[in-house]
Amino acid sequence: MASEFEQLRQAEQKSRIQRRQARVVARAERVQKQQSREKDTEQKKPTKIRLIPIWLRLLIVAILLVVSMTAGVMFGYGVIGSGKAMDALKVSTWEHIVDLVVKGTDENK
Asked: What's this model's pTM, rounded to 2 decimal places?
């Protein structure tokens, strides 16, 4: 009976060793697969080329801002203020507006 017990114990130790070895091999395979995935993603990563460069985007935004402000001034002066829309772009109109604002602040002092 002792020999049977020894045989079972040795068989159990062998199976433990085999399970450990299997775990080590499986862990190594996982690490290797992960490394190969990382290499694949690095190689397949596409470079991003912008259709419109950033400086051109900023320039477009600035131009659109000026156009919208001009349109707003013309709309406000022509439609809301019941004047001619093109008169809003004249320098004399803006001088008159500035004079009205400055004159109003001088009287309050």
From this structure: 0.49
